[in-house]
Structure formats: C-alpha cells, structure tokens
Amino acid sequence: MKNIKSKVSFIALCITAMLILSACQVNFNTNLNKDGSGTYIQEIGFQGDEASMSGFSTGDDSFCASQNDTLPPGTTTSQETRNDNETWCIYETPFTSLEDLKSIYSLTDTLINDISLMDGTLTYDISLDLTGDSGAPMGADINWIVTMPGTIIENNASEQVDNTLTWSLMGGSVNDIRAVSELGGVTLGGDTLKYVLGGGAFLCLCCILPLLIAGVAFILIRKKKATAKPETPAGTPSPEN
C-alpha cells in the first residue's frame, strides 16, 4: 500500500474561486488504455457571468495558466466554452504507464490501495481524503471520473456510462473508489506478456526444436545412403566385356 499525501491543487483552485464566485464544478478525469498509458485531465468550470466576474477572457487561457503552478511536467493548459454559458479551464497530463500515473497522483490527496495490470486484469483502487483542510468547498460539484479499458466487472461508482465511471465526491469524508476490468488478449502490463513469451519458449524447446533435429538427422541419413556404393554379393560372376 502506498500513501501519497499532499495538496489537491485543483480543489485549492476551486476554493480560491469560491471567494469570488457562488459556485464551481471540478472534474478529475483519468483515461486508461490497455497498456497502462493514458491521460489525466483536471477541469474547473464556471457558469454564466461568473467567469467574466473572475477575470476570464474568451479565447485567452492566461487566466487558467496562472491559477495552477503545481502541474506535473508535460501538462498542457487550455480554456473552452461548454453549453454556451460555461467557461472551463482544462489541464491535461499524458502518462505512459501506471507508474507514471501514480507519480501524477503524488500531487493529490490520494491513498493508492492498488493500481495494477496483471494477467489481463486492470485493478484501480484508491481513496480520496477530503477531510480537514482539503475538504471540498460548500456548493462545489466535484467528480472523479475514470474511463476503463476492456470489460468492467466490478465498480462502486455513482454512475456508469459504457466504460466511463463517475464518483460524486463527498467533502469532509474519505471517498473510496474502486473498479476492475478484464482486458482480454495479450497486454503489455503485469505478467501476461511474460507468461506468453515463457510459454512460447517452452513450446519451442520441447516440441519445435526436437522436430528440427529429427528432420536434419533424417536428411543426413538419406544423403549418406544415396552416396554409398552398392556392395557386390559374394559369388556373383563379374560381367563379361
């Protein structure tokens, strides 16, 4: 079990915004691929005129970029309008493996119980501590969203749409988040590939290699017989000239 404890930078941003605005919405999106890569996206949205009150300018993402200086390396910042009257800051961070994802989560109040990819099964099990100083501000709508690859066989999400799971986070408490999916086929994570390669090597040594040796021996024996001179039986008269 790995305990990673620090500030949730986006919730801190939401708290700051609450000093100016009457409400905000925050989404934490994790999109996972079969090989353990994916994207982690943090979003904060303001409704209606609340954006202009806070200093937003349509098409200018300088406000979004200035609000979060604790972003992981490689994060891109953008701003967009949704539903005609909602202005959103989007912070997108790609990761190439589950270990990279865990490093990204090190910037959040996240207890990692189990994030692993083994034998074609992806397990995503974390706890989010929103108690104390990191509790969610009143009126904020905070969602933890995970898109899982493969077939989801277990989850405790508040909502599921296809392979996208959404947890509505509760401020002032610890939120447990768990999902398990079966990927099927060969994956590049866990021990699946190791077992496949090991099985292939075993098959080669036990079956294919003996057949190759037997084939080479058969060819050599036939070649030897073909080149050997036939012996003349004893007592057989020599042919007359």
Write the layout of secondary structure elements.
Elements: E1 2-4, H1 9-18, E2 25-32, E3 38-47, H2 50-54, H3 62-66, E4 76-82, E5 86-95, H4 98-105, E6 110-118, E7 121-129, E8 141-147, E9 151-155, E10 159-161, E11 164-168, E12 174-182, H5 192-227
Parallel strand pairs: 2-8
Antiparallel strand pairs: 1-6, 2-3, 3-5, 4-5, 6-7, 7-12, 8-11, 9-12, 10-11
What's the number of extended β-strand segments? Answer: 12
Number of helices: 5
* Integer-rounded radius of gyration: 32 Å
Give the class from helix and strand content and strand pairing: alpha+beta
**Series of secondary-structure elements, N-terminal to C-terminal:** EHEEHHEEHEEEEEEEH
How would you characterize the overall build of this protein?
- This protein folds into 2 domains: 2-182, no CATH class; 191-226.
- The protein has 5 helices and 12 strands.
- Strand 6 and strand 7 (121-129) form a beta hairpin.
- The longest helix is centred in the C-terminal third of the chain and has 36 residues, at 192-227.
- The protein has helices at residues 9-18, 50-54, 62-66, 98-105, 192-227; strands at residues 2-4, 25-32, 38-47, 76-82, 86-95, 110-118, 121-129, 141-147, 151-155, 159-161, 164-168, 174-182.
- The chain is of the alpha+beta class and 241 residues long.
- The strands form 2 sheets. Strands 4-5-3-2-8-11-10 form a 7-stranded mixed β-sheet. It has a 5-stranded antiparallel β-sheet with strand order 1-6-7-12-9, with helices on one face.
- It is 27% helix and 35% strand.
